UniProtKB/TrEMBL annotation:
Species annotation: Vibrio algivorus
The protein's name in its UniProt record: Transcriptional regulator
Pfam families for this protein: FMN_bind_2 (PF04299)
């Protein structure tokens, strides 16, 4: 990933927060058949003193057969992103020297992957995933709401995946290369939007200013 110094995010907690807030990951790996890319929701966990990403894929998905345990992979998390118009910049009115761009936040995780078939592990994972994503529901669903026999029948249809994290890097392209007056212009214009990502980007630009 091209990541100049001004865009680098080195705060580990902020990197992890993007993983937690945007858990639908893009998994990239090299296999004997070539480059493979897939998508899955994951949860960030801490196991035996190391950070891991845990998720699952369908057993019908041949991906789990294509890699060897402890194979290197890259996992990508996309945070808020939005279009930035030159009209947001007050300096554009003065000299016209401005072009459109795109602001975005992205986190890359590198690590090693393994497949897990243990039913208890998979059941625990599903419990953690549903607890996390049902938290804002007025009546959160839990695995206990489904018949035990039904869940036991479904478990063999998935394969667990666990990625041991070796490194995390982040890119926060949030107008920090612009003069303060243009940064404020970005904040003011994005704050008028009804789009959630634009509003989140406005906050990111504001936080990066301070």
């Amino acid at each position: 990933m091209h990541n100049i110094k001004i865009h680098q995010q080195n705060d580990t907690e902020q990197l992890k927060q993007i993983i937690k807030n945007y858990p639908f990951a893009t998994l990239v790996m090299n296999t004997q058949a070539g480059l493979e890319v897939d998508h899955l929701p994951v949860i960030l966990n801490h196991v035996n003193g190391v950070d891991v990403l845990q998720g699952h894929i369908a057993k019908a998905n041949s991906l789990w057969k294509a890699f060897e345990n402890d194979q290197s992979v890259t996992v990508i998390f996309h945070g808020p992103n939005c279009y930035i118009s030159p009209n947001y910049y007050p300096t554009k009115k003065e000299n016209g020297r401005a072009v459109p761009t795109w602001n975005y936040v992205v986190v890359h995780v590198k690590g090693t992957i393994k497949a897990i078939h243990d039913s208890e592990w998979k059941l625990n994972l599903l419990g953690n995933l549903t607890t996390q994503h049902e938290a804002e529901q007025s009546e959160p669903w839990s695995i206990a709401d489904a018949p035990t026999q039904y869940i036991e029948k479904m478990l063999p249809a998935i394969v667990g995946v666990e990625i041991t994290i070796e490194s995390i890097s982040g890119k926060w392209k949030v107008s920090q290369d612009k003069p303060a007056v243009n940064q404020q212009g970005v904040i003011d214009n994005l704050s008028k939007s009804r789009d959630t990502q634009s509003l989140e980007m406005a906050e990111l630009v504001k936080n990066r200013q301070s």
